[in-house]
Write a structure and sequence with these properties.
With 356 residues, this protein is of the alpha+beta class. Helix content is 37%, strand content 21%. The protein folds into 4 domains: 6-13 and 81-163, Reverse transcriptase/Diguanylate cyclase domain (Alpha-Beta Plaits, 2-Layer Sandwich), CATH 3.30.70.270; 15-77, MutS, DNA mismatch repair protein, domain I, CATH 3.40.1170.60; 171-226, DNA polymerase, domain 1 (Orthogonal Bundle), CATH 1.10.150; 243-339, 2-Layer Sandwich (Dna Ligase, domain 1), CATH 3.30.1490.100. It contains 13 helices and 14 strands. It has a 5-stranded mixed sheet. Strands 10-13-11-12 form a 4-stranded antiparallel sheet. The two termini are 14 Å apart. Residues 6-186 form the UmuC domain. Belongs to the DNA polymerase type-Y family. It catalyses: DNA(n) + a 2'-deoxyribonucleoside 5'-triphosphate = DNA(n+1) + diphosphate.
Length: 356
C-alpha cells in the first residue's frame, strides 16, 4: 500500500462564493455565475441555488425555471484567477508538490512535512484555516493515502469540511459508495455499469480484472484497483507536460452557439490558469466535441509563434467552435487543449515524513 499522504483541496462553490464575498448583498441569495437572464449557461452556482437543483453547465433557462429568484452574475475570470493564485501561494507554504485540476481544486502531496505539523490532517486544517483567514472563502479537504480516495473524501463533508480516510478504511469506504461517486464515471458509464450489475463499489470489486478490461478497455485495470482503495498515481506538478487541457460534461445537452460559447469560457479560464502555473505557452489549440450520441470529433489550429496571452487562446478556441456551427447534433461535452508547451523549473523537495 502506498505510503503517500495526499490532500485534495476543493473550494466551496468557488466562483459564486467569490461574488458573494465581494458583494455582501448577494450573501444568502441563490446566485448563478454565468449567462445573463435567460441566455447562456451556469458556470457556477451558490449552495443556496444548488438547493433548487441548479448546477454548473446547466442552461440558464433551465436554472431560472428551477429557481425563479435566481440572481445571475457575470463571470469575472480575472478575479477568480487572482484569488486562485492566492490560494496556490498558501499551498506552496506546505509543499512544492501541487497538481492543480482547475482554478478551484488541487492535489497536494504532503508526505514530506515541510511545515512540521506532524500529520497530513493537521496540514489540511492549517491550509483551510489560512484560506479562510486570507481570502474570506471556505474550502473542503480530503486526506488519504492516494489521489482517488483524497478526491472522494473532499466531497464527503462539503461545504467547509474535512474528511480523512486512513489505509485501514480505504477499501471499505470505496466499496460502500455508489459507482456514480467515482471520478470519471459519468451518466453513460454508470448506465453501462448498471447493465452489467455494477451499482456499488462492492459490485465493482467483485468483477475480475479481465471482465473490467473487456468492457472498459485500459481503464478497467484502474477501476479494478480503485475498487480496492488502490491508486498509485503520483501528484504531478504542472511543470512537466506536453499539453494542458480541460473539459466539461454538461448536465443538459447544448446546441445554441451562444450557450456553447458561454460553456467554453470557464474551460478556457481553467486551461490558461494551468498554463500560467506551469509557465508554459503553446502553439496548438485543440477543441474536443462529444455529441449526445457519444460520437466525438476534434479540431485543431496551430500558429507559428507560441500563444502568449489568454485572449489569443480564447480567440483560437472560439474560432474552432465557430467553424462547426451550425452543429448537426446537441453537444454533451466540450474540451480544449493547449499543446507544444514550455516547461517550468522543478521545485525542491522537503523533509519530515507525515502520518495521516
Amino acid at each position: 500500500m502506498s505510503a503517500r499522504r495526499i490532500i485534495h483541496v476543493d473550494m466551496d462553490a468557488f466562483f459564486a462564493s467569490v461574488e458573494q464575498r465581494d458583494t455582501p448583498a448577494l450573501r444568502g441569495l441563490p446566485v448563478a455565475v454565468g449567462g445573463e437572464k435567460l441566455r447562456g449557461v451556469v458556470a457556477a452556482a451558490s449552495y443556496e441555488a444548488r438547493r433548487f437543483g441548479v448546477r454548473s453547465a446547466m442552461p440558464s433557462v433551465t436554472a431560472r425555471r428551477l429557481c425563479p429568484d435566481l440572481v445571475f452574475v457575470r463571470p469575472r475570470f480575472d478575479v477568480y484567477r487572482a484569488v486562485s493564485r492566492e490560494i496556490r501561494a498558501i499551498f506552496a507554504r506546505f509543499t512544492p508538490l501541487i497538481e492543480p485540476l482547475s482554478l478551484d481544486e488541487a492535489y497536494l502531496d504532503v508526505t514530506e512535512d515541510q511545515a512540521g505539523l506532524g500529520s497530513a490532517t493537521a496540514t489540511a486544517e492549517a491550509i483551510r484555516a489560512a484560506i479562510r483567514a486570507e481570502t474570506g472563502l471556505t474550502a473542503s479537504a480530503g486526506v488519504s493515502y492516494n489521489k482517488f480516495l483524497a478526491k472522494l473524501a473532499s466531497d464527503q463533508n462539503k461545504p467547509d469540511g474535512c474528511c480523512v480516510i486512513p489505509p485501514a478504511r480505504g477499501a471499505a469506504f470505496v466499496q460502500g459508495l455508489p459507482v456514480t461517486r467515482f471520478h470519471g464515471v459519468g451518466p453513460a458509464t454508470a448506465a453501462k455499469m448498471a447493465r452489467l450489475g455494477i451499482v456499488t463499489g462492492a459490485d465493482l470489486a467483485a468483477q475480475p480484472i479481465e471482465a473490467l478490461t473487456q468492457h472498459f478497455g485500459s481503464w478497467g485495470a484502474y477501476l479494478h484497483g480503485a475498487a480496492r482503495g488502490i491508486d498509485e498515481r503520483p501528484v504531478r506538478p504542472d511543470r512537466v507536460r506536453k499539453s494542458i487541457g480541460a473539459e466539461r460534461t454538461f448536465s443538459e445537452d447544448l446546441i445554441r452557439p451562444a450557450d456553447l460559447h458561454a460553456a467554453l469560457a470557464p474551460i478556457i479560464a481553467t486551461v490558461w490558469e494551468r498554463a500560467d502555473a506551469a509557465q508554459a505557452r503553446g502553439r496548438t489549440v485543440t477543441l474536443k466535441v462529444k455529441f449526445n450520441d457519444f460520437r466525438q470529433i476534434t479540431r485543431a489550429r496551430s500558429v507559428e509563434s507560441p500563444i502568449t496571452d489568454e485572449a489569443g487562446f480564447a480567440a483560437a478556441g472560439a474560432e474552432l467552435l465557430d467553424a462547426l456551427v451550425p452543429l448537426e447534433k446537441p453537444v454533451r461535452l466540450l474540451g480544449l487543449t493547449l499543446s507544444g508547451l514550455g516547461e517550468g523549473d522543478p521545485a525542491a523537495p522537503a523533509q519530515l515524513a507525515l502520518a495521516l
